[in-house]
Automatic annotation (TrEMBL):
Listed GO biological process terms: citrulline biosynthetic process; L-arginine biosynthetic process via ornithine
Ranges for domain Aspartate/ornithine carbamoyltransferase carbamoyl-P binding: 7-166
E.C. no: 2.1.3.9
Keywords: Transferase
Top-tier EC class: transferase
Record carries keyword Protein biosynthesis: no
Gene3D superfamilies: Aspartate/ornithine carbamoyltransferase
Protein name, per record: N-acetylornithine carbamoyltransferase
Entry keyword Transferase: yes
TM regions (residue ranges): none
Length: 341
């Protein structure tokens, strides 16, 4: 077996099914043992957060501490210098330090770097190619973990996978997974839905994307998801009628994201998301046609906009377990990257 040391965790697709399964299995075992053992004593996890976080930040810090490692966080512009990210630019504006120096320097201090950098939502190609994350990987001389980029949130996907493994006694294959779009006052990125679909398909689930036609995810993401589904004898279904999509679901994963029109006509996209499709809030009536589906959400969630109180406070909601599982999954990931299993 090749060493995973010095590997990055940027896109789920960089890691094969066996490696992902091994991480999920290890995460389950660590959870069961409430694992706290300084096996990574002396190591340090460095994190750069260009955007806010509750779960990612605390779950990674906690995971590192449980392994005996340290954790150090910077939020560019808040107590640290502001970073220029563009190449070849004349830095005579307000940005103080180039990412190229910053990442090289941080690499000299820490043993892995986590980065959160949401989609810019100005250029679709740039976002889907994850150009900023790819640059950081080039500058870094230690492994880089994607803590939510423009294209993906692979750490969330690990926790989602662990949650579904637990919920279906290690056998989620064949279960119906519905990712449902929902309204939201803000144009949110597509990283979480992209990753949620991929992990569900790779676990062999029957994957349905439920969304208004204008909110469809990009084919550059959907095509590989479809291929994963086919490998398991399933097909990726896209359903524009929410009620039809929910029928007999075993999992409903709620999430809002901005439709691709946000790149070309943001005002129209805003109207679609907040007015035209305001009725897509996930509620008890929709959930009643499922097979007592587990309700999942990555959080943070806006109550009674994305999903009703009744669903979030109901028996099927597993979003708090899902958030807890971030910590266990990432503990396993850190151990993998540091060659500790
Ligand atoms: C509200 C918001 O900005 N949500 C972000 C973060 C979700 C989890 N990290 C999103 O939708 O991608
Ligand atoms: N789900 C998630 O990544 O949460 P945070 O944005 O709070 O880190």
């Amino acid at each position: 077996m090749t060493s995973d040391n010095n590997r990055n965790f940027i896109h789920l697709s960089d890691w094969d099914d066996d490696s992902i399964s091994a991480i999920l299995k290890k995460a389950g075992a660590l959870k069961e043992q409430d694992f706290r053992d300084p096996v990574a004593s002396g190591k340090v996890l460095g994190m750069i957060f260009f955007n806010p976080s509750l779960r990612t930040r605390i779950s990674f810090e906690t995971a590192a501490y449980h392994l005996g490692a340290g954790a150090s966080i910077i939020q560019p512009g808040q107590g640290t210098w502001t970073f220029e990210t563009r190449r070849g630019v004349i830095m005579d504006g307000s940005r103080t330090e180039h990412l190229k120096e910053a990442v090289q320097v941080i690499s000299r201090y820490v043993d892995v770097i986590g980065v959160r950098a949401f989609a810019g939502m100005k250029n679709l190609d740039e976002d889907l190619e994850d150009r900023l994350m790819q640059e950081i990987v080039q500058y870094a001389s230690v492994p880089v973990i994607n803590m939510e980029s423009a294209r993906e949130h692979p750490c969330q996907a690990l926790a989602d996978g662990l949650t579904m493994m637990e919920h279906f006694q290690d056998n989620p294959a064949g279960r119906k997974f519905v990712l449902s779009w929902a309204p939201h006052p803000k144009p949110l990125p597509m990283a979480v839905p992209n990753s949620a679909l991929e992990i569900a398909a790779r676990l062999g689930m029957q994957v349905t994307l439920a969304c208004p036609p204008e909110m469809k995810l990009d084919d550059r993401v959907l095509d590989p998801v479809g291929k994963h589904a086919e490998k398991h004898g399933n097909e990726l279904r896209i359903e524009h009628d929410q009620q039809t999509a929910f029928k007999d679901a075993d999992v409903v994963y709620g999430k809002s994201w901005a439709g691709p029109m946000v790149y070309t006509d943001p005002e129209k996209e805003q109207k679609l998301r907040t007015e035209t499709y305001a009725g897509w809030t996930i509620d008890e009536a929709l959930m009643s046609s499922t097979r007592a589906a587990a309700f999942m959400h990555c959080l943070p969630v806006r109550r009674n906009v994305v999903v009703t109180d009744g669903v979030l406070d109901g028996a099927g909601a597993v979003h708090i377990d899902q958030a807890e599982n971030r910590m266990h999954a990432q503990k396993a990931l850190l151990m993998k990257l540091w060659n500790l299993f």
